[in-house]
Amino acid sequence: MATFLQRIGRVPMSKLLQTESLDDELRAGLWNAITLSFWSKSRDFPDEYTTAGQTALDLEAAIRRLWIGHLKRPLDTLPPRPMAGDHRSVYGILRQIVMEGRWDAALDIVDALVSYSPRRWQSEMAAALNSVLEQENAAYRFVNAELTPITSPVEIAAIESAIEKSSRAVRTHLEAALGKLSDRKHPDYRNSIKESISAVEAACQAVAKQPSASLNDCLKVIKKSKPLHPAFESALTKLYGYTSDASGIRHAMAEEGSEVTHADAQFMLVSCSAFTNYLWTVAAEAGIEV
To answer: Which of 130, 145, 158, 142 is closest to 270 using CA atoms?
Structure first.
C-alpha cells in the first residue's frame, strides 16, 4: 500500500531494481524476516536462545554448521550463547554482515542461513525473505531454497513447477542448472546450460520411452494422441536445435574463448523449465505415462 509520502509525490512509488546494492530498507527487511523465521524459533528470543527440546538442538546445529561450513571459523571460537543485541555473539556477527557488510556478502549470509537450516524451516524462511525481496524490488529470489538472480514471478514459477513435478532425472538436471547459475562465488554458466539442456533431453526420453530419444522422437509420440500446430512444432524444434545442433549453443560452448553469460544461462534454465512443464502437461493430456 502506498504511504502518505508516496501519495503526495515526495517519495517515488517504486524503487529502481536493486542488483548490486542493498539499501537500508532492504537490509532491515531481510534481517527482520530472518529474525521472525529463524531466531524466533527460540522460546526466549530476543534475550537468548536456550530453548528446550528439538527446536533448540536444530537451531544450535544450524548455527554450528554455518560457523564451520560457511564462515570457515574454528569451532572452539563459536560463542557459547548467541545473544540478541550482543555484537560478539553469532547473532551480532551475522547481523553486522547483513546490515553493514558488502551487498554480496550480506546476500551470501542470507542464502547460507536458509541452506544450513533444517529442511522443514526452509520454505517458511524463503517465503518470508522473498516477500521482502519483492517488496523492495531486489533482483533476487529464493527458488528451491537457493537465492537466485531471477526476478520475474513467471520465470520463478516455471522453474519451481518443473523441479517439483518432474521425474528424478529431470529434477536432478534442473537443480544442478539452478545451483550453477545461482552460485554467487563461482557461477558456472556453461555447465548450467548443459544441465538445462540435459533436463529437456531426459524429459523427451521419458515421454518417448527411449533412452536416447530426441525432441523429434518425443513429438512423434505426442502427435499420435494430440495434434500439434505446425508452426508451434517448428518453433519447439528450432529452439531445441539452437541448443543441441552443431551450430547451436552447445557447440559454441566447446569453442576456445567463447563467452557464455549469465543471461544465456538464465534464458536456457527458464526456457528448458517451461519446455519440460509443457512436455509433462501434453503427455498427461495424451494419456502418456511418464
So the answer is: 158
